[in-house]
Structure formats: structure tokens, C-alpha cells
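I have been asked to look over a protein record a colleague put together. Thanks in advance; the entry in question is below.
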Amino acid sequence: MRKIFLLFFFCSIWFNALAQRQVAGRVLDSQLRQPLAGASVGILNTGEGTITDEGGRFLLTVPSETDSLVISMIGYQMRNVKLPRTERDITVLLQTTNALLTEVKVTGYETNRPLMETAGAIGVLHARDINRFNTTTLVPALNLVPGVRMEERATASYRLSIRGSSLRAPFGVRNVKLYLNEIPLVEANGTIPLNLLDAATIGRIEVIKGPAGSTYGAGTGGTVLLETLRAPAGETSAEVGAMIGSFGLLRYNATVAAGSDKASFLVRYTKQQLDGYRQQSAMDRDVLLISGQLYPSDKQTFSFHGYYSDLYYELPGALNREQYEANPRQARQLNVDQKAALNLNGVNIGLNHKYDFSPQVSNSTSVFGVFSFLNHPFTNDYERNTNQAFGGRTKTTYKTVIGGVGTRFMLGGEWQRSFVNSRHYENIKGVSGKLNFDDEVTLEQGFVFAQAEADLPKNFIFTLGASLNDMQYRLDRVTGPGQTNIMENRRQFDPQFSPRVGLVKVFSPQLAAHGSISAGFSPPTDAEIRPSDASFNRSLNPERGTNYELGLRGNLFNEKLTFDLTGFQFQLNETIVSRATSTGVVVFNNAGATDQKGVEAAVSYNIIQAPTLPVSLLKAWSTYAYSHFRFKDYQRDDQDYSGNELTGTPPHVLTAGLDAESRLGFYLNITGNYTSRLPLNDANTVYADEFVLLGARAGFKRTLSQRWQTEIYGGVDNALDKTYSLGNDLNGFGNRYFQAAPGRNYYTGVQVKYLLVTR
């Protein structure tokens, strides 16, 4: 009898073992590919499960008949994962939803930490923030971040300013570093043409405010990290969309995406046309994005992108106050006569490889190439440029424990070489005439950086970093006025040292404080050293600045209310300012120093957040920036502007919004903005008026028969039909300061997506 019982007992164990299996896996953030600790992994239709460890890993014993797991985490979309029949080790990617500060992870300063544990003022935007507007431009989305001001001087002519950094730039973006998928996004002339990017191709944005030279090199304003859209794991799809709107807006796009746990690929084409709000302000842009990621193992990742853009837009020119008030839609007559416009073709190619040699040592290396071709008839000349740039970036990270303190060291470098062939002709009503001068400009710049982080007792996190930067320009004037031989000019800047120290105190999961001191510099761009009057400015020096910052982040009321408050003081020396000569040519010089103090705040409250209710989300939010920016020791000729307000910076900017979503698929986004009056010249004798903007977007999303996903939407911008100037010409020649922004305008569109494969 005993033998029979033992036989039955062992058979039961054997059959039970056959009826079970072990499943191991990792849970990662779909965008950052960072492990998610504390994610819930449950067996479908049971109460059993586990949670992931610090590396995002889990091990779970499941019944043999179980074919699905449920993966969930606060701030991420819940996902049902079908278990493969053969594999026992799976990777699960979760996509963010309305992530809270405690869950939002940032890549800024190369920390890959939650925002609550990061020392620095950082704004994070996701695709849902970009899609609350019409996606024809990044302007309204980036202006949601307090302290950021993006302007549109003409259709597709942008300036991006972080705490007043780029408002005096001749064109493009300066004092700010931009990266696209960890690849430096830069033109050979030192500026960044944001107009080449299509807003709808961007899936995530991080804005680091203030000098970030310890890890990103030159840039006193800050750094913007852009990530393109990625194909969701386990999904192969085709998508088409179209939009029409006021002032001749026509836009359509097509996307093909394929994603799995091991790879993802995306191809997207977008065509956008616009007649323009003003005379001489039409635009036409074609954008093609090809991107992909390969994950051959848990240890390594390959990613790549190719970005091509063909852009044409007209330049209406600035108006004086009398013209602006009489008819803001008119153009400057000289711009019309000279057919002022810009035609730009650009290609940006990047490749990145990440490898984890061990849990302690990892490396990330990128290489890139940038090519662009510019045809630019302007009022006083016709410019043709050929640009090319090559470079790379690498960083190695080492994690260890020293004296019981978790420590992380990072060492890296970035280098690029740029070449511009710039030819300036007479402009004869939009046709190039006699060659005035032919320049070949070579720029070499690079920096090495190091950083150390330590997780100190009492929940303190300490960061110390620095970079050493080097840059030189070489100008070969092949042809010039009265010139018979090639003229060579060189400008070598002294190596610049940019340190940074930061400290975070995490009081609880609901509250953290941070402080930092950072130094940075911004070298002059090619357009500033070599203005269109054929001169070469040898005396122009880099801007140098030091930033002091304190901040507080947290949440209250069971994480319904989140807040982020920062105060800063930035001292900038050798500030570069612009002025117009008697012939209207813009030239640049250093103007002493500026003193920039400010407060930035962001708050949001989830009134309703319940997926099962008819109204699944009701959220109110607001951001505010106060800027007390003044010239400090600024004298030009016999005029002393010391103590004046910094040109182009509004003292107060308040943005607020209301978001609503329903379980049935309806949604509504309302956004309002108040911008106070701002000075348009250094003398502070001319100001742009304050303005209030109101806009909204509403739509309906629906999934049909598990394969088709549709979205129908419509919206209005500047619903109050306010007359305002967004992209002002500062210190405008002939008192022409105003670039009128569009009045009330509408748009409507549709997106249709078909899932070829889904899991």
C-alpha cells in the first residue's frame, strides 16, 4: 500500500510539472529601452503574478494552458502578451500614457534616471503633446515648456529660444544644441534649420534648460533631444492621412511600420503645402524619414535613421508699425520685387550602436553625416550654399560601488568637421546676377567630457561633470571684390572648460528638490563671423555664462496633482547682439553682459483618470515663466543700454489647457496662451503688444474589427482672431520690426491605419 501511495505521489508531481512551465523576461520602456522596475506581470484571468526587479526582469511559473500574460505599470499602457510556444525568455515593451513625474525617465545629462531624481530643469514632451495641435509645426508644442519660446518669423522660418538664448540669432537656432536620435543635428554654418523637420515624425522631446556643456558641449541656452517615431512592438501596419485648412493648407502623409521584440522599422513620407497668411509667404515641403532599431540580444542595440527634406518657402519681410496696423497681411514691397525666398534640400544620416559589456560597463557610439543645398534670393543678394558635415560621438559608462555608495562614471567625446561653399551673387528680381564673392569655410569642433554620479546616504544624488571644448574656423575667399589671389582667414578659439555640479534630495516618492551650478559657452556662428557684407569678423568672441538653479518637484493628493518649480539666475558675458548697417546688412558684436533671472512653473491636476468611466480622462494644467532679463554693462557707440530689458524676451508667459478623453474615443484639447509685451530694440523705445491666444482640437478615435484604426479631427487656432507678431525682427532696420502671425484659422483631417500583423 505504501509503494502504491509513493508511486501515486511521484506521478502527481510529475504530471503537475508537465502542466507548468517557467517564463522569464524583461519589461522595458518602448521609447528609451530602459528597464522598468516594479512593473506587474500577471497570469491572465487569475490573481497570480509577480513584479519586475531593478533590471526589469521577471521569472514566473505559469500553467501550460496559459497563453497570455498581463503587463501593467502606472504611467504606461497595459499590455496583454501572448506567450510563444517555444521561447521561454521574452522582452515586453510598454508605451507611456499620462506618465507622472515619478515614472517619467529622462536621458538628459546621460543619467537615464526618473525626472524626480534628476538635477536640472528639464521639460519632456510626448507624441500626445505634439498631437494636441495640427502637427504642421513644432512651434505650439515646444511653447508648452516654460522658459521656451519658439517663433515663426515667416512660414517655416523658425527661431528657438531657451531662456532668451536665440532671439538675436540671424536665422535658424544658435546657443542651443539639438540631437535627433542621439545624433547631433547641425548645419555646417553652425545653425540648426528646424524647418527641415516634420513635427508629426517626432515621438518624444526633452528640453534641457540652461548650460549643459558638461555632456553636450557648446550651448549656453540648453539642449533639445528629439526622438523620431518608432514602430510599436508586435505590430506591422500601414497608415495614411490627410489634412486641409485655412490659407491653402494641404497636407498628407503615408507610413509603413513593422515592429517586434527584436527589431522595428518605420518609413514615413509627408507632403505639406500652404499659400500663407501674408503676401509672399507660401511654402512647400516634402519629408521622408526612414528609421529602424535592431535588438540582436539584450546586450546590444543598433539604431539608424535617414532624414530627407525638400523645403521651399517665401519671405514676406518685416513691416513697420504703420504698415502692420494698416494691413498685417501685406509683405514688404522690396521682398516681393526681389522674390525673396529660401529653397533648402537637406539630408541627415545617423547610426548608433549600444553595447553592454557587462552589468557594469556599457558603450554608446554614433556616427553621422549632414548634407544640404541652399538657394536663397534675398533683398540685397542671392546666396547659394553647399554644406556638408561629418562626425561622431561616443561615451562609455562604468557602474560600481565605492564604500557602500553606488557610483557611475562616464567618459566620452564628440567631434565634427563641417565644410561650406558659399557663393553670393547680385539678386536681380529672384535671378542670380554677377558673383560678388565665393567663400569656402571649414569648421572643426570637438570636445571631451566626463561625469560622475553618486547615490549618497539619506537619498541624496550627487553629479559632477565637465567638458573641454575646442573650435576653429578657416575661411578661404576664392573670389572677392577686387581680389586676384585666394585670401585665407583663420579664427582659432581658446579651449573652453565647462563644469557642472548638481545635487538632488529625494524626500519621498512624492517630493524631491534639486540644485545645480553650470557653466557654458556659445561660439559665434558662420553667419555672425561672416555676414553678407563680405567682411570677416575676427574680433567676435564666444558668449560665456554661468547658471545657478534651484527646483522642487512632486505630487499630491494620491498623485492627482503634479508640480515642477524652478528658479534660476544666469550671468552671460560677451553677449552677441545684432545691428543693421546703413545699407541694411545685419552685423554682430559683443555687448558686455546680461543678467537673467527667472522662475518657471508647471502644474497639472487629473480631475478624472479612470479608463472604465464614460469620461476616462479630465485634466487641467498650466505653465508659467517669469523672465527678469536685463543688459548689464552694454554700451554701443555713444548709447548706454545698461539696465534695459533684454531685447525680444517677454517678462510673462502663461499657458493653460484642459484635456478630456472618453471611453468611446472622443477627445478634446483646449489651449490658451498669454504673452506680455516685449521690447523690440535695445533702446527699449519700441515694444510688441501683449496678446492672448486660444485654440482647440477635437476628434474621434476608433478601432474597427481589430484591424482598422481611424481618427477624424478638426481644430481652430487663434480663435479670438488676435493680430499679433510672433517672429519679430529685433533692432529692425528702417523700423521694420513686425512679422504678423496668422489670424483665426481652421483645419480638419483624417488618419486611417490598417494592422497587417498584431500581437
About this structure: The two ends are 51 Å apart (CA to CA). The domain at 20-94 is CATH 2.60.40.1120 (Immunoglobulin-like). The first strand starts at residue 20 and ends at 29.
